[in-house]
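## retry 2 of 3
previous attempt timed out at serialization; input unchanged, resubmitting
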Amino acid sequence: MKKSVLEMSRFETSELAVRENERRIRALKRSGKRFNELRYRLEDCSYGGTPCGSLACKICNRDLRIDLVDSAVSSITRSNIDTWELLTIIPYRKALDDEELIGFDLKAFKKWFGRAFRDLGFTGPIWGMIEVDYHSYAEAWLPHFHVVLPKTSNNELAYERLKQSRTFYYETEFLEGTQNRPFQKDPFDVVDAVEVLSYTHKLYGSEFYLNSRRKKVKGVLYGSRLVEYLMFMDNHSYSELRFTLGVSDEKWAGLRKVHSNKRLEHHD
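## retry succeeded, writing output
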């Protein structure tokens, strides 16, 4: 069983993280002088300066993912629970246009979700992250939750209540001609915890578009959309994205302090 994301063959190397930062820097540079402040911070971080600690930085996010995922995997391993579930929840009615993205209140969004999640009866230990993707066919940014939780009879009952609840219901088709899928549940065994938690803690959104057959395809953010997303991420902190239930905050508080104080060294 893998105990660290560094044991994953597909986990990005520090060199690939620098290369991705360079792509982001080029996008910011092409977009004009008003993005120079973030560009300069990413450049300094990429080429040996003080780590910037920004959510827009692939290098700093890689560091944080190593710490967060490895800590969560250690907790899951010690729990003696063998079967877990990855629950994805998409509140379609919370979709945002470009202007709304900039002023999006992540704290209020997470508070709303946390209250609804607890009221439905879910119990921890639970690790979750907010993610925001761009859907070009709808011209909208769509915030959603990835939640890792133990498969228990209590959580199975809570999931049934979730499906019957109107809290996340949205009758308008987000993609014309297709049925909305606000919930998706995927079971996994504890031995796969590293891969699943690496996915939920990737700290980066994607772009979804329709191909020539009108099939939804997942791609990488480019150009102005990438710049919009980087500015959004830079405006927020790690703690605003993270959702936990029944998990001690002691380890997280330490990690938050380390990363907010700008680390002197990156993980190799």
